[in-house]
Design goal:
mainly beta, Jelly Rolls, globular
């Protein structure tokens, strides 16, 4: 069985030109055993774009994921430099967040959640 049958990708931060902070859409991890959050970056023209991951039990109240529950770390986004972290926490929902400051023209990027180790295969 290949990874297409055991993994799924969901948008959290849709691709966009960003000049303001944004909270991504929560992604449900039910029926998946692992998750990776990837920030896919185009051009950053100015400002600071700080990525992070948040978690929630109810897809409503989100808090920052503790460093101990991430495999890897995130740094300020830079042009054409993708980043990813693994999630090993226990909450049902996670989302990508970008905190933006000092922008005029901003940057273009997105964030996706790769859900892995599906308990029901193949993933449809």
């Amino acid at each position: 069985m290949d990874t297409k049958q055991t993994q799924d990708v969901k948008n959290s931060l849709a691709p966009a030109a960003r000049t303001a902070s944004a909270n991504g859409t929560g992604v449900d991890l039910a029926n998946f055993g692992s998750a990776t959050v990837a920030f896919v970056v185009g051009t950053i023209t100015d400002g600071t774009h700080a990525p992070k991951v948040q978690e929630s039990d109810d897809n409503s109240s989100f808090t920052d994921v503790a460093a101990a529950d991430l495999n890897g770390s995130l740094a300020a986004l830079a042009s054409d430099t993708n980043q990813r972290v693994g999630y090993r926490g226990s909450k049902r929902y996670i989302r990508a967040v970008s905190t933006v400051s000092g922008t005029t023209t901003g940057g273009v990027y997105a964030a996706v959640v790769l859900r892995g180790d599906a308990r029901k295969q193949p993933v449809s």
